Structures are given as C-alpha cells and as structure tokens.
Amino acid sequence: MVNEYERLLTTYAYNILGSYEEAKDVVQDAYLKFIEGDHSAVEDKKAYMVRSVINLSINRKNKLKRQRDLYPGAWLPEPIATEQADAALYQEQILSYSLMVLLEKLNAKQRAVFILKEAFGYDHAEIAGVLDISEEHSRKLLSRAREQLKSTDIPTPGSEARAYAERYLSVIQHADMKQLERMLHDEVNLVSDGGGKVSAFRKAIMGKDAIGRLLIGVHKKFYANMKIRKTVINHEPAICYFENGHLVSCQIFSLRGNDLVHIYFIRNPDKLKMLEKNLSASVTF
Prior knowledge:
This protein has helices spanning 2-17, 20-36, 45-67, 97-102, 108-118, 124-131, 135-149, 161-173, 177-183, 208-223, 269-278, and strands at 184-193, 205-206, 227-233, 236-243, 246-256, 259-266. By secondary structure, the protein is an alpha+beta fold.
C-alpha cells in the first residue's frame, strides 16, 4: 500500500504544507496510524488514506503557522523541480510557485478546500466527506478563499519557462540594465528566504530600478563564477546556483504576460536539500 499511494499522498500534503520534508512526515504518520489501528472494515483504503493525510496536513499547517511567527524574515515554500522526472510527487498536480506563495494568505482549512477543488477537481460533496464538514460549509470556505485571493493577479506559468530563464540569464550576465528593465513589470517585487541561516533580504524589495540594479549587482558580486542550472521549479522558470558542488541559491521567476512580476530567492539550506538531489549533476557556466 505504501508504494501504491505514497506519491499521491505526498503531493496532497506538499500542496497544503509547502514543505516536502513536512509532507513526508505527515504521510509517514498516516501510515503508522493505519497500521497500528484496526481498519479491517475499511473498503476504500485509498480514500481513507487521502482523508487521513489531508486532515493531518491541516493540523500540521496550523502548528507551523504559529511557529512561523518566529521565523527570521520572509518564509517561502520549499521549491520542487518540475522539469526532471521525479517519482516522489505527481508533478502535474504540484501547484505553481507563485500560487503556493499566495495560498499562505489562507487558513489551513480554506487552503485545503481550495486545493482539493482547483488542483484535484473534487466536488463539494467529496470535499465535505474528506474534511467531515457540510457541503454548504465547503462552499463557504471556497468562497472565502477566493475572496482573499481575488484582489491578487495570480501569474500563470507559460510554456516558455526555460526560454525565459535563458533570456534573463543572458541579460544579467551582460549587465544590460535597459534590457532588464524592459523585462520587469511595473509592480515587480523580490522576496528572499534565508531562514536565518544565510544572508537574505529581510523585507520585500519593490520597483524596477531598485530590483534591476540589485539583480545585476548581486550576480556580479556573488554568482558570476558559480555553476548555473536553468530549470523549472513548480512550473515556473528558475535559475539555480552551485558552489563547490552544492546548491546555494534558487531564484524563481513569476511572469504576468511577458513581464517579470515576482522574484523569489530561496537560500535557506534546509529548503534546498531535496532540490539539490533532484537536479541533474550536469550544470553549465
């Protein structure tokens, strides 16, 4: 049963939690509870495990929310490579990175309803059964979730993610400020997550000029001589930087049309462990 459902269950948990490591722990907890209990009367073991994992994920998310009040600086979800084949998760059902960030606005139960409806295509009767709530309550939770997200334009990942990373990298490497500003949206912002373990910007940075100069300056000072891997993270273009064979920074780019509107720097080493393992060993300068 573990091999049969683990990938699906981990995908559910990851979308709710935003952390692969936490998702693995939740799935393991669900299996232990199942093995230790008497479930001989359970006819649909898959549905039972899905329900267990989702509810455990909601509980874990609530606990993590409280812990993150003490998190140093901005908290960003753990990045998942969606370009390479990875048996650990259902890649086609992993949410885009920008949407994962936006879903942090929701409480855990709203987020679960939104994900079940939008990512996995559940109807309200099915959601009600999973979360042990009424269909009416499910509809209200979804409505509240959409209300909180409606004022935010959610970038949609395009099919040219890798090509965009190639273009961006060329502009940065040539320090072409004018061309870079043409690539940036008027409302562009940059968020960085170092987890208090490595240097990172404590607050979001806004504006074309400030971000353009920062991107070129940071690349020249820190990244110009590192090995680089252009890839796709949570269905969005990304560039990963390696130093002495270790992944030290993942930069993810969210587009609105052809313009770069959100930039995410993930530098917390704990959030880069799985990504480092899954990226191919072949990197280019």
